[in-house]
């Protein structure tokens, strides 16, 4: 399934991030988008799998400096990263 950049909004992107989190680590999905991945139980291997899935889903390639915790720390921070740097139309 590819992502339609015409339908870009925070809610839609966050829903996709949560969906991919559920695929990678079903026990990690929380109602709080600000809960850190570490607190949600996503280890570094699952985080890298999530990054790969995010890149595939949104048809982007994260820059190396965007692989830092401030960008990939929680569903909310990933959503902000995607909207601010990759999904602008």
From TrEMBL:
Q: Which InterPro entries match?
A: ACP-like_sf, PP-bd_ACP, Ppantetheine_attach_site
Task: Decide whether keyword Phosphoprotein is in the record.
Answer: yes
| Keyword Metal-binding (UniProt) | no
Q: Which UniProt keywords apply?
A: Phosphopantetheine, Phosphoprotein
Q: Where is the Carrier domain?
A: 8-86
Domain of life from the UniProt record: Bacteria
In Swiss-Prot or TrEMBL terms, this protein is called: Phosphopantetheine attachment site
């Amino acid at each position: 399934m590819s992502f339609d950049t015409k339908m870009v909004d925070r809610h839609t992107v966050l829903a996709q991030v949560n969906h991919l989190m559920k695929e990678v680590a079903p026990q990690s999905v929380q109602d709080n988008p600000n809960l850190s991945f570490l607190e949600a139980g996503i280890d570094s291997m699952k985080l890298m799998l999530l990054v790969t899935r995010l890149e595939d889903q949104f048809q982007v390639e994260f820059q190396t400096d965007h692989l830092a915790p401030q960008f990939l720390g929680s569903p909310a921070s990933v959503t902000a990263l995607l909207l601010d740097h990759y999904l602008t139309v």
